[in-house]
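[step 3/7] inverse_fold.run input=structure_tokens len=282
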């Protein structure tokens, strides 16, 4: 079964690719469109299975072309996109296909629980750390980010971790955690001792983020083999682990700012009130 894909892009980019065309790529009558022909040797006729296989074949080929363009010409190269797709089956029949993109709707945990109840299903357990994340004072956090480069850097890593609609960028999440850990170490404290995470969860996250087998292309070491955790973390668990650690760290920083940088705040609540002698009660 053959797939005929019209790829659209900037005229200059199409010309660059066609100057040394990869196998299956050819010019068309339009300067900004190239024709990519792909062959699926495992399917002869149109079927749901053939369509799914064709989509996988097409997505892979397009990623390779765009990746090659970025490698060769850097950011000058703008990604090609799919304009139209048609197929030719082994019996000569033809047809056009539209591969629609996935639609996503992201819900807050409570909203997701409400939806599950409306569907007649059990309300799922709320994520660990939800209370810490929702308790963040946004004004204080923004002020800290403006004054402290580490806070701004961590927020950027969290943003990168959650780019896209599926999965997480484990390497970006791990980078956020490393900044948090080093920041705590610089203040001679430990995130684990302050209750920001447990040793077990920290180790599971490290193993997930390091293993390309578990985390895929967004792992810290996609070119090396690291053992996956015996109890893997889902992307949702990993995201909440990082978000919780970061929220507790920012809250700790806020408390330090409130009570003076030479004092160590309680990570689980406001500083204890002084006793009658003026000393803080532990």
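[step 3/7] decode complete -> sequence:
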């Amino acid at each position: 079964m053959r797939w005929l894909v019209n790829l659209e892009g900037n005229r200059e980019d199409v010309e660059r690719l066609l100057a040394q065309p990869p196998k299956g790529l050819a010019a068309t009558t339009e300067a900004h469109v190239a024709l990519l022909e792909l062959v699926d040797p495992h399917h002869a006729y149109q079927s749901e299975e053939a369509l799914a296989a064709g989509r996988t074949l097409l997505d892979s080929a397009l990623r390779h072309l765009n990746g090659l363009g970025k490698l060769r010409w850097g950011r000058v190269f703008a990604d090609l996109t799919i304009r139209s797709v048609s197929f030719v089956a082994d019996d000569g029949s033809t047809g056009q296909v539209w591969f629609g993109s996935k639609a996503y709707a992201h819900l807050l945990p409570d909203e997701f629980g409400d939806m599950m109840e409306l569907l007649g299903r059990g309300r799922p357990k709320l994520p660990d750390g939800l209370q810490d994340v929702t308790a963040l004072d946004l004004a204080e956090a923004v002020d800290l980010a403006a004054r402290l480069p580490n806070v701004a850097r961590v927020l950027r890593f969290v943003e990168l971790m959650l780019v896209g609609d599926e999965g997480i960028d484990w390497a970006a999440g791990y980078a956020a955690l490393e900044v948090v850990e080093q920041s705590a170490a610089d203040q001679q404290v430990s995130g684990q001792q302050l209750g920001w995470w447990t040793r077990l969860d920290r180790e599971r996250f490290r193993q997930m983020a390091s293993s390309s087998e578990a985390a895929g292309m967004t792992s810290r070491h996609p070119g090396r083999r690291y053992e996956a955790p015996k109890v893997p973390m889902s992307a949702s668990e990993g995201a909440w682990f990082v978000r919780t650690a970061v929220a507790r760290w920012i809250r700790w920083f806020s408390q330090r700012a409130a009570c003076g940088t030479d004092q160590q705040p309680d990570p689980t609540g406001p500083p204890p009130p002084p006793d009658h002698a003026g000393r803080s009660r532990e």
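[step 4/7] annotate
The longest strand covers residues 81-88.
The CA atoms of residues 254 and 260 lie 10 Å apart.
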